[in-house]
Amino acid sequence: MVKRWGFYLPLGVQGRGRGSRAVLKLLQKGALVHDASYYLPIQLEGPQDCILSVLRMVLIPSPPVVAQMSSESLFHKVLQGACHQNAMLYHMDSSASHFVAPVLYMWQRMTSERVEWEISSVRKLWIWIHAAAFHEGCNALRIACEKQQKSADGVTVSCIQQEGRIARLDIMGNKASEVMSKILCPVTISNKTIDGHEVPEAQQQFNMDQIQKFPPGAILQLRVKDPRLLSSEVNSEFNEVGIDLVSSDTCKPSDNMELWDSQCNLDPPVPENILCREKNRKRLNSLFLEPMSQEVPGGRQQDVFSQSCPVVLLKHGHQTTFLGWSIILPLSWVKTFWLSLVSRGGHAIGLRERRWVAWKNHVPCFPHDFPDTEGYRSLLTDEGTLLDASAQLRPHRAQPQKTPMPPPWDCVVAYLHHICRNAVKFEFLTLDMYVPRTNMTLKEHVERMDSKDMISAGDVEVTDGGGEKETLCLVRVFVRPFKEGLFEDGSLVCAPCADDLPGWNSRSEKEVEKSQEKWQLQLKQSSVESYFMQLESGKWALQVPEDPADLKTFRWPIGFITTGAVHACNDRVSVGFCDIRILAALRRQQYLQTEIKRPEIFVLVRNMKSAAYRRAIATIVLEQQQEDLLFL
């Protein structure tokens, strides 16, 4: 267990059969359960047009105007409350570098199918945000709501924190639906049409085959029975207990109003001791024995418990190989559903295993794969402090080499100065980092770059050049080793020189073996230790060697690996971030030298404590897809 972001969270389980190989195998052939209650909702409540105005201030991509939405568009379904949507939350009226966090937002389901009729009606919206950026996200939304109030003649949009009221459980894997069917027995389901699928008003069995037909991102609202009562004999005569129980077993439409009402008190489940006492009473009755008279503890007679629970099911909007659901439920019911999920076949995982799942499906994991956020810098700073503290406990000779955490991204600017201005020493006060996550935002940012050299990256023209203001435009890349190597978190992605490129061009087996024997590039051990130097201020600076012999083996960094390849897995791809201008320059150079146009870019990767450079191939994610909004 580790304490992060105000929560005590499971980091992972150690031991044989609990490593990455076993977890990823369970993802393919079983079900993984993760308590994602550290994702907290913020509720916006007000007129629909005012809420949409607030979202346009802070979200990318922002929802369009209602009049421009077609009935078949995704935004129309999201506005109806039939689907949820991923987006990136930014500070209002600020530069693109002021990124807060990725979010998931969902509307309360509408009673009317025509969106334009509900423009002035009061609507409710949930924005789910990670605890590492919760307070920063709340401030950004509050400022946007205040500005909207000034421009709307006093019409307010309430920004309400739902922290400590509702929670979320994630179920992932190919057998996620099978595990859910064992614990979910709906009392009733909303009788609305979700993406063309008609759902009956009442049903006693949860038809998982039916909900599998729903598209990714679909929302289902249910009221389900207490999972502890499904296989228990207590369920038949439980109402005989002398406690004021709220039974909702009558079949009536459920819109889960109590979940959306921030002022409503959510009834907790029946305590375990009452269930055990009732179970014991029934067993004694079956043996024709009279149970011992037990008085109900004082103060419990006035308590109100419930045998059913309102839940909202979210189908993950990921790739087809990444099957999973999220269960949104009252916080008081988390323990009940968690124990039922684990006892019915779900394998509990922590933060480390969840990151493995994200890596397996090529989905970024917050905050590790979001270097332009404060949550990323705060997390890696805390981890670096813990590593330094543990290293100080060892003898001086046994202390490991100290490495910068978080990585010094400003060293990437050094290469821009080197190739654009032929300068080795550089000085700047601040560094703005920006990561475009849609093709449109990438194109808009690239068009603002002042450049002379231009190349085509998909349908986007990428420029190379520098300005007076130091702005680092990073793009997410997949880095695969060319022949050998396994890249770790924090590894450097470096730019190869012209003499290094023949190492990637061998085709025949003899040439491959010959190139494998000849191609070796290593730093001196002294150069590895002095590659980065920690200043008195605590920051790390790149040290360019002055010796010509050392300069021949020096390669300029252009980015870093944020998520290394998981061990014991055939797929050795790593996730990194590199400057788009340098990648553009490298691609053009490699086009001219190899005379072969290919989407991949040849790069070198070196683990932070290693002296050997490894050949690798980098692929820009936004060249393979239109947007990069999915996250875990």
Automatic annotation (TrEMBL):
Gene Ontology CC entries for this record: nucleolar ribonuclease P complex; ribonuclease MRP complex
Gene Ontology BP annotations: tRNA 5'-leader removal
Cleaved signal peptide residues: none
Source organism of the structure: Rhynchospora pubera
Upper classification of the organism: Eukaryota, Viridiplantae, Streptophyta, Embryophyta, Tracheophyta
Entry protein name: Ribonucleases P/MRP protein subunit POP1
Domain POPLD: 324-399
Taxonomy, superkingdom: Eukaryota
Pfam families xrefs: POP1_C (PF22770), POPLD (PF08170)
InterPro entries to which the protein is assigned, alphabetical: Pop1, POP1_C, POPLD_dom
Record-annotated POP1 C-terminal domain positions: 515-621
